[in-house]
Amino acid sequence: MQALLVIDVQNGIVNFKDFSEEINKIQQIIQDFKAKKLPVIMVRHFDKNEENPLHRNSKGSEIHESVREFADYVVEKETPSAFFQTNLSSILEQLGVDHIFITGFETEFCCMFTAISGYDRGYKVTFLEDATGTTNTEETYEMKGLDIQDFVGTVLNWSEAVEVLYYNEYLEVYQK
Q: How many structural domains are present in the chain?
């Protein structure tokens, strides 16, 4: 069985900059999973730093209204991996999931770490590159011309451990 992970689509991230393209793709993928009666699991990150917009009980830590109502489950985490010290593995096991799809935010942290952790736990993992986004830029990493989504997608694809698709490829392969 397949499950969709929607990682860190929270007010503090979504309101950081224009993520309308990513949100639109995530919403379309959610609708596909809902139509197939497959689980949609929202992952919510909490930061311990009270200055951070994702601090627990802050407005910024709430799941964004664009996806909130579609959650079948909500997993709370405090590290980049949605698997580390959370109940995600038990939820997936109870549902009989063997294939997870990764969408959401902070491509190079939470999405990538969760994809790798899922692979390490024996799941087939599909990383939907252009249905992820990040608040970071080429300036953050002091790497002129860096396309973070493309870089992470390329690394994961080269690993041959994680299936990496663009949204249009996802439609061709999985929307049948």
A: 1
